């Protein structure tokens, strides 16, 4: 094989062992080098392809750990019900696992999330309850409603993904070690955004334990308090603006994120204009059909690379796929209403449906 071809892909059978059911097939995702951005920054930009998980997102890992730990602790028994408050992806992971292990699944979701996630959850057999998107402090917030429902049902658990630290343990025990192995320990920077904070915290805790010199930078969209919290910890938490991203952005320091508070070296604010540009760029230049939180993570990886300078290895996460957001992220009307169409090159705009 010529050197030229070898640069772009390797051929032959990839060695993947047989998985014992879907639970065993969660994790061990590829780490993809993003060529165009690596060349641009003179760094290696690596992205963990979490959309390749069984349920199609990074949240399969947390879902599996939350369920397995509840079984181990005797809280979840055969035929039981898993109740969770979720932006969708954790619920999708839980619904797959519930089907495989013989549980029922009840999902509380804010009514602002994509139709694709809601439809998928229903196809998977989960009972979906859409509730108004009110802040965490409000007793009608989807998480509190999920908790109350779990308490009212026999043999049911509430996943409590925001404050149940089995969520970040999944990333401490799987995502972090995979990144370490896949890079042969050559990581200089790690960045991603936070919803529950499980991914960011679990991976940061693992990587810092392996090498305290690794820069851990949290990334944040508009409407979230995390960026300001790390820039000015003494100021009160304040929400400003809103974002097209789903599944990320937070109004408080969750118990999961708490584990990484002392490990955060930098915090990066990413506006939606940069996120949408990157989302289309990754699609048309790299063949990566990723959701908005993933595109935001990639922007953050580029910013971190620019801060650290040439020659560094930066890792981030591709949390899910754009198949979950096709009706909005690829609609001309929707992008126009959000004031974002103008950021896309003309040739991309022409491809879009109304
Ligand atoms: N991206 C997407 C699309 C998500 O659904 C989530 C989880 N809500 C995240 C990122 C954030 O992951 P975590 O909860 O581990 O912070």
Q: How much strand content do the residues show? A: 5-15%
CATH architecture of the largest domain: 3-Layer(aba) Sandwich
CATH class of the largest domain: Alpha Beta
Q: Low-confidence parts, pLDDT < 50 over ≥5 residues? A: 1-6
Strand order of the largest sheet: 1-2-10-7-8-9
* Heteromolecules bound: 4'-deoxy-4'-aminopyridoxal-5'-phosphate
**Overall pLDDT metric:** 95
Structural class by sheet pairing and helices: alpha/beta
Give the fraction of residues assigned to helices: 40-55%
Sequence of secondary-structure elements = HEHEHEHEHEHEHEHEHHEHHEHHH
N-C termini distance: 45 Å
The tally of domains stands at 2
Taken from the alpha-carbon principal axes, the silhouette is globular
Total beta strand runs: 10
Largest sheet features: 6 strands, mixed
User: And the CATH topology of the largest domain?
Assistant: Rossmann fold
- Can you count the helices? 15
Rg (C-alpha, Å): 20 Å
GO biological process, one term: amino acid biosynthetic process
Cofactor: pyridoxal 5'-phosphate
GO cellular component, one term: mitochondrion
Domain Tryptophan synthase beta chain-like PALP: 24-320
């Amino acid at each position: 094989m010529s050197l030229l071809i070898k640069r772009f892909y390797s051929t032959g059978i990839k060695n993947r062992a047989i998985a014992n059911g879907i639970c065993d097939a969660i994790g061990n995702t590829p780490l993809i080098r993003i060529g165009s951005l690596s060349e641009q920054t003179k760094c290696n930009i690596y992205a963990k392809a979490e959309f390749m998980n069984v349920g199609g997102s990074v949240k399969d890992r947390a879902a599996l750990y939350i369920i397995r730990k509840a079984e181990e602790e005797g809280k979840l028994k055969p035929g039981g019900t898993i109740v969770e408050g979720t932006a969708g992806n954790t619920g999708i992971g839980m619904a797959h696992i519930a089907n495989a292990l013989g549980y029922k699944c009840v999902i509380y979701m804010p009514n602002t999330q994509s139709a694709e996630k809601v439809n998928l959850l229903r196809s998977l057999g989960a009972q979906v309850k859409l509730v108004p998107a009110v802040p965490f402090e409000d007793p009608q917030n989807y998480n509190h409603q999920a908790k109350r429902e779990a308490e009212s049902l026999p043999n049911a658990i509430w996943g409590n993904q925001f404050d149940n630290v089995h969520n970040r343990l999944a990333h401490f025990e799987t995502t972090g070690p995979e990144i370490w192995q896949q890079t042969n320990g050559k990581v200089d920077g790690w960045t991603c955004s936070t919803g529950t904070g499980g991914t960011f915290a679990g991976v940061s805790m693992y990587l810092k334990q392996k090498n305290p010199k690794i820069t851990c930078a949290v990334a944040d969209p508009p409407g979230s308090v995390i960026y300001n919290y790390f820039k000015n910890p003494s100021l009160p938490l304040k929400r400003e603006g809103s974002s097209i991203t789903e599944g990320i952005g937070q109004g408080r320091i969750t118990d999961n994120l708490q584990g990484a508070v002392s490990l955060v070296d930098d915090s990066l604010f990413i506006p939606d204009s940069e996120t949408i540009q990157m989302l289309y760029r990754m699609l048309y230049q790299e063949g990566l059909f990723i959701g908005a939180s993933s595109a935001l993570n990639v922007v953050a990886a580029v910013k971190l690379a620019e801060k650290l300078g040439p020659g560094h290895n930066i890792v981030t996460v591709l949390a899910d796929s754009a198949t979950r957001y096709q009706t909005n992220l690829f609609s001309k009307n929707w992008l126009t209403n959000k004031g974002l169409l103008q950021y896309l090159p003309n040739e991309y705009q022409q491809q879009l449906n109304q």
